[in-house]
Amino acid sequence: MQFGGKYQGSSFLELLEVDYAQLRPDPSQLAEGFRLSSVPHGTTVLALKYVDGVIVAGDRLATEGNRVASRDIEKVLPTDDYSLMAIAGAAGPSLEMARLMRVELEHYEKIEGESLELDGKANKLAQMVRSNLPAAMQGLVVVPLFAGYDLRRRTGRLWKFDVTGGRYEETEFEATGSGGIYARESLKKGHRNDASRQEGLQAAILALVDAADEDRATGGVDLLRGIFPIVKFCSAEGISPAEDSDIERVYREILEGRGRGGS
């Protein structure tokens, strides 16, 4: 397919860089009077393997310093039919990166006539994280998780990233954000790669509940407002969400177990 400009490849990001550089905002240029504390930040997200693929989950809270910016932000976003991105860090740049990632993958598929391999998708996201480094140096950090179902290998896979764009594949689970350390400690207790869908859901909710217990910026489950974490499954059948009713049932089971002296 031929374009009117100089770039003739299949990358939407490179197309912008070469022919439409003026359309890409410069993240290193922040407005005068900008205050980092006024930027909403997403907190805890996690990903784990289960028998059919991967589960990606996140709480719904966003904070501005010590105040609540949003109680129902969605931090787990599909990037195509078989991959998901979970965002933590500065909410605005994170959401924009997720949207751009989806456009990038759609553009590649339209130009090449086939979807990118899951490894290639992870590489694309690493490039986006790297391009955000100037803004990250000023505090607008984006630290996503990426997970999906590898149709070629027939298995779920997941990656974490650092602010320089380094990507690291994890073999079992990962969590990031302000409550990430507590979510990881929770998952260490009983996670299994061969867990059933229900067991995987229980592990994800328990990890978010444990993170919310220890980290004030993690939202957990809000029964009063009917706000539940976002949990999505990705398998050979594609992406499917966990129902709020299922999440509530698991949460109540956790509370009952603790009321009886359980962990």
How does this structure look, described?
The chain is an alpha+beta fold and 263 residues long. The chain has a single domain (12-23, 37-257), classed as Aminohydrolase, N-terminal nucleophile (Ntn) domain (Glutamine Phosphoribosylpyrophosphate, subunit 1, domain 1, 4-Layer Sandwich). Helix content is 35%, strand content 24%. The chain contains seven helices and 14 strands. The chain has a five-stranded antiparallel sheet. The chain has a five-stranded antiparallel sheet with strand order 6-7-9-10-11. A hairpin with a 2-residue loop joins strand 6 and strand 7 (83-86). The radius of gyration is 19 Å and the shape is globular. The model is unreliable at 29-36 (pLDDT under 50).
What is the number of beta strands?
14
CATH class: Alpha Beta
Content of β-strand: 15-25%
Largest sheet: 5 strands, antiparallel
CATH-scheme architecture? 4-Layer Sandwich
How far is it from the N-terminal to the C-terminal residue, by CA? Answer: 58 Å
What class do helices, strands and sheet pairing give?
A: alpha+beta
Low-pLDDT residue intervals, each spanning 5 or more residues: 29-36
Query: Looking at the structure, what is the overall shape?
Result: globular
Number of domains: 1
| CATH superfamily membership | Aminohydrolase, N-terminal nucleophile (Ntn) domain
Mean pLDDT: 86
- Named CATH topology: Glutamine Phosphoribosylpyrophosphate, subunit 1, domain 1
Radius of gyration: 19 Å
What pattern of helices and strands is seen along the backbone?
Answer: HEEEEEEEEHHHEEEEHHEEH
Percent helix range: 25-40%
